[in-house]
Specification:
This protein is mainly α and 451 residues long. Helices cover 76% and strands 2% of the residues. The protein contains 19 helices and two strands. Strands 1-2 form a two-stranded antiparallel sheet. The longest helix has 30 residues.
């Protein structure tokens, strides 16, 4: 296939003659909106397992002498760096793409990368494969947001975005519990092969469920169908150059830059727990791999509540204003972190910390990682807004992975033939990032919103 043929395959479909039967319009909208939400929420959640598998199998990889913590930090950071770059480029591309094809192909590619990782025992090979995985993973969020903004109107956005954000928690929970159990029972290779199989099935499901934008089916835009123009009585349809100009205009919005750094700091803590939390619970708290996975799964279940709660609280309690909700959820996250790392060593207290942390963090990821950016930027370039925030967020995650790997490795000593870990410096690094993120987000209390 030539490059022009490839671009044509992924390009958004042409508009078809409009349907005039209102009953048929209503029926199609109800049908496809449900299918879109299933595809982008459950689909993105399932494909998330292909991103987090490395964090689950770190201890067996270290114990078997395959990779050191520093090498695992380098491999893990490869995914985040390519994800960061891909989040930006794929965010811009998603605004122009047929999301059905865009998501299906990239989901399949990330599944194949996980299958290949089950065979990789050389650092550079593993880093290359995991880096490719990050690139393909980066299409999921902007593709999902573009589909969401095409099929759901402005005043539904907080609640719908909150529901969609549970995808992160679905994927994390499945990874920590199901993939962790697979790795414990069958070995570290199955910690990659299991998500690979899940990814192949997910790609097939997205192809079946998703459709392109409503106009390609002869439907009016969702704003017209819902009569929800959010301060604008009419809509314009800029051409490709107009869309690109609007995309670049978001770089002139100061609040976008502040939000990007705040999100990056939140992602430091988010992926510190995702990537190193299993190892911490095993070494510092004495849990087995399935037990550690179960504890982190509780956090992700709370995260599902947190994502939905953030959307409803910010929409209904604060009239679609995100900053007050940001502050509340940031405090919940910090309280949870303090309990996890400094609370008494008993299971009920640890569970409470995990629940508070999961609820607070996922609420923040819902807002700082996307929803607030979509509010601040013009709606027609939602993918680009997600891309700008995404590149900062995952550079933060990548730096975290490398810094955490160095700090954990520096605190690792051999005592009577057993590895002993001092997680203290890493813990303060993670907590400090969350505090800085909360303070930066608070400066956006009066940020201007755009239609």
């Amino acid at each position: 296939m030539t490059m022009s043929g490839l671009l044509s395959f992924f390009a958004a479909g042409a508009e078809t003659p409009p349907i005039t039967d209102q009953a048929e319009i209503d029926r199609l909208y109800r049908r496809h909106r449900f299918r879109v939400m299933i595809a982008i929420t459950l689909g993105y959640g399932l494909i998330y397992t292909c991103r987090l598998a490395l964090g689950v199998v770190k201890k067996p990889l270290i114990d078997q002498g395959i990779f050191t913590p520093v090498e695992l930090g380098a491999i893990g950071s490869a995914l985040f760096y390519t994800y960061a770059l891909g989040k930006l480029t794929n965010g811009f591309l998603a605004d122009h793409a047929n999301v059905r094809r865009f998501l299906t192909v990239t989901f399949l590619a990330t599944a194949l990368c996980n299958i290949a990782m089950g065979f990789a025992t050389t650092v550079w090979v593993a880093a290359l494969i995991w880096g490719l995985n990050g690139w393909f993973q980066s299409a999921g969020a902007p593709g999902g947001v573009v589909a969401m903004t095409a099929w759901f109107s402005n005043r539904e956005r907080g609640r719908i975005y909150g529901i969609w954000s549970t995808a992160h928690s679905i994927g994390e929970g499945l990874t920590f519990l199901v993939v962790g159990t697979l790795a414990a029972l069958l070995g570290w290779r199955f910690g990659f092969w299991g998500p690979g199989v899940i990814g192949v099935v997910t790609a097939a499901g997205c192809w079946w469920l998703l459709r392109d934008r409503p106009e390609t089916l002869g439907l009016p835009t969702v704003a017209k169908w819902r009569n929800d123009h959010y301060g604008a009585a009419t809509e314009t349809k800029p051409g490709p150059r107009g869309v690109l100009s609007m995309q670049l205009s978001i770089l002139k919005i100061p609040a976008i830059w502040v939000l990007a750094v705040s999100s990056a700091l939140t992602y430091v803590t988010r992926y510190a727990i995702n990537s190193w939390g299993v190892l911490y619970l095993q070494e510092a708290r004495g849990f087995t791999l399935p037990e550690a996975g179960f504890m982190l799964m509780l956090s992700t279940l709370a995260g599902m509540v947190g994502a939905i709660a953030f959307g409803f609280v910010s929409d209904k309690v604060f009239d679609a204003r995100r900053p007050p909700a940001n502050l509340i959820f940031a405090l919940l996250e910090l309280i949870g972190l303090v309990i996890i790392f400094f609370g008494p060593h008993n299971v009920p207290v640890l569970i409470a910390g995990m629940l508070l942390f999961g609820m607070g963090l996922t609420g923040l990821v819902t807002s700082l990682g996307g929803l607030f950016a979509v509010d601040i930027a013009p709606k027609k370039v939602a993918g680009a807004a997600m891309g700008v925030i995404g590149i900062f967020s995952y550079i933060g995650a990548a730096i975290q992975e490398q810094v955490s790997g160095v700090l954990v490795n520096a605190g690792m000593t051999m005592v009577n033939g057993h590895r002993v870990y001092d997680f203290g410096p890493a813990i303060w690094f993670w907590i400090g990032a969350s505090v800085a993120s909360m303070l930066l987000a608070a400066t956006l209390w009066r940020a201007q919103l755009h239609d």
